Amino acid sequence: MSELRVRFAPSPTGYLHVGGARTALFNWLLARKQGGTFILRIEDTDVERSTKESVDAILEGMKWLGLEWDEGPFYQSDSFPLYKEYVQKLLDAGRAYKCYCTAEELDAKRNLAMQEGRKPKYDGTCRERDDQPEGKPYVVRFRAPQGGVTAFDDLIKGTITFPNEELDDLIIQRTDGTPTYNFCVVIDDASMRITTVIRGDDHVNNTPRQIQLYEALGFPVPQFAHVPMILGSDKARLSKRHGATSVIAYRDMGFLPEALLNYLVRLGWSHGDDEIFSMDEMIQKFDIHNVGRSASVFNTEKLLWLNAHYIKNSDPERLADLLMPHLSSREVATPGGPDLTAVVRTLQERAQTLEEMAERAVFYYNAPAGYDDAALAKFDRGHLLTVFGAVTEKLSSSAADDAAGIDRLFKEVCGENGWKMGQVGQPVRIALSGGTQAPGIGEIVMTLGMEETVRRIQMAREYVAGK
Ligand code: GLU
């Protein structure tokens, strides 16, 4: 019995993409489900394109999602001596050879092959050479098996077979002595004793080369699970063109981490018709065999729907904390204003994102700087002035101390004047919030407080009177 060890191995050349986050999630879920180990490895061998900012952004995204890792982060750039050691081992064993062909020679051969309609594959010139030209630059190539096939049983895609004759003698070390990507991955996965490699299916074509390397080095070959891509609505691979693709951008747009995780887990994986999964349920129910073979289309509407669900069901105090940065960016200061948790309670039923919630919370703290004139224009001026007067009088003389009590007062005002609720509720909502998109009147009044409510109705009355 072997213990499950999985890894997420992002290249730090950008932020944490939602596709990467889903790969990380699948790995994490499997580890949590089976009591295995989840490792984070930063694949920064591409020194030109890897940045510290990107590493930070990836770690930030992982932490925000709560995908905590058990080992790492390990950096490939720390393992160069190890890679060198294994290159030497393969050379010593005759499983790799030095290739002195120049870039020009290789280009010429490639062009000739293309002209003659052959696959442009390294022709093996240096495979059997036994001289070692002094001082001439060389790469190290893996001596790949020539005949037969390399096959593996992918946990998602089933059996995949590659004829070996289609695979080049892979370069494992460049002229400058640095190891190449596919080689590093194998050394790392083997030395980290990874048992299951779950990654994007853009790596399917790398897998046979990697398997050949495992075999040549005498390492056990792990299992592979290649997760299909995420596409945009036009069925092209999801990219910035389709909108936000970074996990942190979703945080900043006001998504809850559990909503994004729930969305991502269902992107390609299903469990009956279930849509809502708590973390515990995901861990319990996730099965890599139930990940579909075809690509999935990213659907923002569904993500919004899930986010609204989680906002509605979240603890208002937690939401209040999460809402703070969204309020600060709107120059809203909460001290001295209504209790933010109470504000959240009036908004969480309807908000799809924290951004939307923040937008709707602004009026509680900043009195309207203007009014929705089109909405006011639906009522005649005389009516508005009478309503504002009557409501002010009613509220000032009341001792109502809950939303239901306030709602009753409004019913009384309606009854006494022969008005319908809309004829009173809308003008007052506009007076209090500036517009008509606001929670129920009783809730607003209770949250704003009686004094502030009366003050705002008075302001609106002056505004209308001065028109
Ligand atoms: N670094 C690779 C990537 O970001 C992942 C390689 C792997 O998982 O084997 O696509």
The main sheet comes to: 3 strands, parallel
| Global Rg | 32 Å
CATH superfamily of the largest domain: HUPs
Q: What integer is the average pLDDT?
A: 95
Name the shape in a single word.
elongated
Quickly give the CATH architecture of the largest domain. Answer: 3-Layer(aba) Sandwich
What oligomeric arrangement do these chains adopt?
single chain
Question: What is bound: which ligands?
Answer: glutamic acid
Report strand order across the widest sheet: 1-2-3
Provide the CATH top-level class of the largest domain: Alpha Beta
**Based on DSSP secondary structure assignment, what is the total number of beta strands?**
12
Number of helices: 19
Number of domains: 4
Give the low-confidence spans: none
CATH topology of the largest domain: Rossmann fold
Termini, distance in Å? 82 Å
Binned, the helix content reads: 40-55%
Task: Walk me through this protein's architecture.
With 467 residues, this protein is mainly α. It has 19 helices and twelve strands. The chain has helices at 18-34, 52-65, 80-92, 103-115, 181-191, 207-217, 247-252, 257-266, 279-285, 300-312, 316-328, 340-347, 354-365, 373-376, 381-396, 403-417, 421-433, 441-448, 450-465, and strands at 5-8, 37-42, 71-75, 96-99, 139-142, 149-154, 158-163, 171-173, 196-200, 223-227, 230-231, 296-297. A three-stranded parallel β-sheet has the order 1-2-3. Helix 11 (316-328) crosses helix 12. The protein is elongated and about 105 Å long. The mean pLDDT is 95. Glutamic acid binds at residues 9-11, 43, 185, 199-200, 203.
